[in-house]
Amino acid sequence: MNMDAMPLARQVDFVFKQLEEELVNSPAGTVMIHIRNNAIGKFGLRQNPIESKNGSFEKLERGMTPLQVQAFRKMAIDALQFRRNWTHGEIMYDFAVRPSSGTWSASICYESNYNTSNWSYRYQPKAPSMRESYRDNMES
Parallel, antiparallel, or unpaired: how do β-strands 39-47 and 103-112 relate? Predict the structure, then answer.
């Protein structure tokens, strides 16, 4: 599937469909999506650690239902409207299920990042660098 040809919302929808089986019954975690040139490069799910006491695992809490996963996917797509003017970065969707009340909550973190090694040298200042100025002063 060519991710470059799809709008970012459709790409996020695709990610959540791919992670659906992992999200169902997951009590808490983070969905991570890495974006480069407005295309998703990689994605994954970081689940909260499974704890053990005295060498034995405790009963896992009830996680997300399929209906809650659908609502989570819709919320993730709708939240893209808050992402403004950047094409490279990371989106992190933290989520947690509250088994006692049967509800879930999520928060979203957008991070933009840029790689200066891709910038053209023609945009650098005309003034000599500090290293060149120092070398010229040492030679005189």
Answer: unpaired
Q: Phi and psi dihedrals of 53, rounded to 5?
A: -125, 125
CB atoms within 10 A of CB 77: 17
Tell me: pLDDT of 30 over 80: yes
Contacts of 37 (CB under 8 A, 6+ apart): 4, 87, 88
Question: Has this prediction a pTM greater than 0.85?
Answer: no
Q: If you write DSSP's letter for every residue of 51-94 in order, what string do you get?
A: PEETTEEPPPPP-B-HHHHHHHHHHHHHGGGG--S-SSEEEEEE
Q: Residue 20's closest CA among 60, 62, 61, 64?
A: 64
Cα gap 46→81, rounded to integer Å: 24
Contact 8, 85 (CB under 8 A): no
